[in-house]
Amino acid sequence: MPGAATQKYSLSTSVSPSGAGSVSPASGLYDAWTTITLTAAANTGFVFDYWVGNVSDAGSNPTEIALSQNESVQAVFAPKVKQISFAGRQWFIKASETRADPGQNFFSGAADNVWVNGSGLNLALRYRDNKYYCSEVYLDRSLGFGAYFFSLSGRVDLLDPNLVLGCFTWADPQKAIWHKEFDFEFTKWGDPNNATNAQFAINPFYLGMVQRYLANLPDSAPELTCYLVWQPMYVEFRTYAGRYALASLPPAANLIRSWRYDRETIPAPSDESFRFNLWLNNNLGPSDGQEAVATVSDFGWQSAVPAFPVLPPANPAIEITYLPPAGSANYLQGKAYGVDFSTHRVVAYIKVSGVWWIKPYLDQPLTAIDQDGAWSCDVETDPGDVGLTEVLVHLIPAAAQPPLCLPCDATPAVTGSLAQATAAR
């Protein structure tokens, strides 16, 4: 009796763009459950980028695929790009004559768009051939967990409202579940009246994963230094006035804003890289019609986490520094003083139609405090909240149990409160 035929599945391989390279082995029929090693080879002028299909690792070359059904796999290649040397590292220069993200802009690697001189790395917005060209550079490798820093020179706090200066880690979302994007962004997002001009953000974005703040620089010393600490259990952002480094940390008094995030899973490094870009929000031209230049004066990384200086303790106190206008997407902001911020919280209440409600949510009644004492709370989580007339905040131990107010007719009495502040609208 003849033996049963071995089941076979087809494997179809292709490349994108056409002519950019080849895949070995080629398309064909293979025994079921066979594990095949796929290798992509780039033609002149291209480099391998990633795989599309049910492969074991979309960012690795070679990679493998196990045939449990008919499969199609595509090797995606990218044009080789120009490189530039800055701060002892090699950076690729982004270039695109078709609209590309961020902002659906054109990007140029021309010498007057991206260059290095005695001042540092310069990123420019240029107007040529009836269109604006933005600029971006990115490291040629992942640096991984550790402490990053960069310094900026010039009045980045006075950028045109339609411009965005981004300083961030990022991984192509086609290669990674997370974008692995930790952002320092300097922008007013197109609104010249925005009371803030900078932010820390984590992407993919979820509620509470962005912190807006105001960075003001003097004409006499227009420099900022920013630090990103990326660890398995947390990410920490810091912005200081002045020019510093990892070997020469800034004094605590120079801290403009910090934020520590440890509330969700922190992605592990793999195929991300650090990047700097200067781009137009929503492809809008600059409101002043002028070209622009942003300068990164230094960059560095180390695996060890530095011990940042802290201010001496003071008496417990709390203040409200910003009450957003009705209907704003901005958060209530303030500062706390004189306590261990890791073991204390802020509880916020709003008064609407004569009664008090806790904010931001019943199941999230307490607001964390950043390591510099800054805190922010969403006080408009319900359509009716636009009618709030007063805000009350208390500084309390994290273990305290303030009244939840569903609502409270009388002003909430918070047991264990160390300090309080109010603001009216």
From TrEMBL:
Biased composition, class Low complexity, residue ranges: 10-23
InterPro entries with a match to the protein in the record: Bacterial_rp_domain (IPR044060)
Domain annotation Bacterial repeat: ranges: 12-79
Pfam families: Flg_new_2
Region listing for Disordered, in residue ranges: 1-23
Protein name, UniProt field: Bacterial repeat domain-containing protein
Organism: Candidatus Buchananbacteria bacterium RIFCSPHIGHO2_01_FULL_46_12
